[in-house]
Amino acid sequence: MPFEIPDNLHPDCAPIAWLLGTWRGNGHGDYPTIEAFQFGQECIFTHDGRPFFHYMSRAWIVDEQGVKVRDAAIETGFIRCKADGGFEWLLTHNTGFAEIWHGTAEIGTPRLEMTTDAVARTETAKEYTGGHRMYGMVEGDLLWAYDMAAVGQPLQPHLWGRLVRQ
C-alpha cells in the first residue's frame, strides 16, 4: 500500500513517520506462565501536526484456522517525539498497566527500540516489572517484538507479530 508523508508532519516526528496509518496482521505469544497462543491485531498511528503520534492497538485470540475466539489486549497512548530522534511513549492497557517507555528512532532506518522507564499497575493487575520493544519495517510490513518481565520471570520474549499497512 502506498504511503505519503503528511504535509503537516511535525519535524520531530520525521524519524517515525513510516509508522503512520493502520496496520493489521497476526502474531504469536508465549511465556513460561501461559500456554502459547496466536492472535490477530490492528494498530493505528495518527498525527495532527504536533510533536506526537496517537497510538491504539487491539488484539484478539484466534484458533489454528485463524478464526477469532475472543477479544484480547487493548492499549493506547502517545509517542512524544524529540528533535534528536529520541522519543517517550506513554502507554495504558486494559489489563491495568500504565507504562512510560523511552527509546530512539534510528534516523534514516525504519526501526524503533525502547525500554520501560516506569511501570504502574492497578491493584488487580498481574505483577509486571518491565519490558523491551522493537518495531521495524521489513519488506514493507511492520514487524514487532515485545519482551516482558512479569510474575517472577526475568525479561524474555513474550509477543511478536507481522502487520500489513491497510
UniProtKB/TrEMBL annotation:
Belongs to the nitrobindin family. It is an enzyme of class 5 (isomerase). Gene3D superfamilies: 2.40.128.20. Its EC number is 5.99.-.-. InterPro entries: Calycin, Nb(III)_bact/plant, Nitrobindin, THAP4-like_heme-bd. Heme-binding protein able to scavenge peroxynitrite and to protect free L-tyrosine against peroxynitrite-mediated nitration, by acting as a peroxynitrite isomerase that converts peroxynitrite to nitrate. Therefore, this protein likely plays a role in peroxynitrite sensing and in the detoxification of reactive nitrogen and oxygen species (RNS and ROS, respectively). Is able to bind nitric oxide (NO) in vitro, but may act as a sensor of peroxynitrite levels in vivo. A motif (GXWXGXG) lies at residues 21-27. Forms a 10-stranded antiparallel beta-barrel structure able to accommodate a hydrophobic ligand in its interior. In fact, this fold hosts the heme group, which is located in a wide surface cleft. It comes from Nocardioides mesophilus. It catalyses: peroxynitrite = nitrate. Keywords: Heme, Iron, Isomerase, Metal-binding. This is Peroxynitrite isomerase. Its cofactor is heme b. GO terms for molecular function: heme binding; metal ion binding; peroxynitrite isomerase activity. Heme b binds at T33, K126, H158. Pathway: Nitrogen metabolism. The keyword Chloroplast does not apply. Binds 1 heme b group per subunit, that coordinates a highly solvent-exposed Fe(III) atom. Residues 13-165 form the THAP4-like heme-binding domain.
